[in-house]
Amino acid sequence: MVTRGTTNPNRLRRVDNWIAAHAAGALHDAADPLVIDLGYGATPVTAVELRARLARVRPDVRVVGLEIDPERVAAAEPAADPPLLTFARGGFELAGLRPVVVRALNVLRQYDEAQVAPAWATMTARLAPGGLLVEGTCDELGRLAAWVRVDHDGPRSLTLAARLSTLDTPATLAERLPKALIHHNVPGQPVYDLLRALDDGWRDAAPYATFGARQRWRRAVAAVKTGGWPVLDGPARWRLGELTVAWPAVAPSMPAKFP
Ligand SMILES: C[S@@+](CC[C@H](N)C(=O)[O-])C[C@H]1O[C@@H](n2cnc3c(N)ncnc32)[C@H](O)[C@@H]1O
Fold it and tell me: How large a percentage of the chain has pLDDT more than 90?
């Protein structure tokens, strides 16, 4: 599905930093450290940035930007730096490549929710062993973001990430939930409860704002964890404005079955 292709420099910095931390092991171990940026948009700027950020993890990392729109593939060509950064036409089948990491940001939001699981399955079937798909959504400047980590066994975690210096309240992250969750932010659904818990923690931690927004977020996330949510990352990630929880805790609960 070709869309407007909106993108921006640094828009995906948060997710890239998370990938650099969480895919470092898989990238180091890979015979071919191939990463795919699926749906890079009207300009290839975020693919260029992804390659630069992951080169710090492994200098020979190779990024292939794939676009469904052939005009965008042609427009990206001047930014190519083969073999480290190339562009090609491709969709969820990943052009037959076998990557260690797939980043698909702001791609599925235009699709129907029913198309998400098949798209995840098509992409993860192409992953190299130990590989991961990172699929999610963010605002135009990348201040609010949310993404799902998916691997051969299905979805594993949800990460919420915010630029803390401009964060009003964590509830605003609701607008940026990945397609698999955005329609489930309603009472009775787990992701609604998670955002409520984070919002409550943020409100209760208001006195810590004098020590900076990071301190306040750390307190809020610690409260979420104390409340029983399976928080996966620790304070080193919290201080970046992240919260990662195990997927089963936020997976949409099934609609009630009628007799
Ligand atoms: C909103 S842009 C996102 C650009 C960039 N990833 C970002 O987050 O800034 C979405 C892009 O995904 C592309 N796209 C949509 N469906 C796709 C698919 N199945 N395979 C590859 N690209 C796709 C669209 O053509 C569009 O350029």
Answer: 95
CA distances from residue 26 to 122, 127, 166, 252 in whole angstroms, order as listed? 20, 11, 33, 29
Report how far residue 167's alpha carbon sits from residue 68's, in angstroms, rounded to the nearest whole number.
34
Q: For ligand 1, is residue 132 a contact (CB within 6 Å)? A: no
Contact status, residue 34 vs residue 50, Cβ threshold 8 Å: no
Residue 165 has pLDDT above 80, yes or no: yes
Q: State which of 6, 37, 68, 122 you would mutate to test the pocket of ligand 1, scoring each by most atoms of that ligand within 8 A of its C-beta.
A: 68
7 lines ligand 1 (CB under 6 A): yes
Distance CA(1)–CA(125), nearest Å, equals: 21
Residue 121 DSSP code: H
The strand ranges marked E within the chain are: 34-38, 62-67, 85-89, 101-105, 132-138, 144-151, 154-162, 242-246
* Residue 11 CB–ligand 1 contact under 6 Å: yes
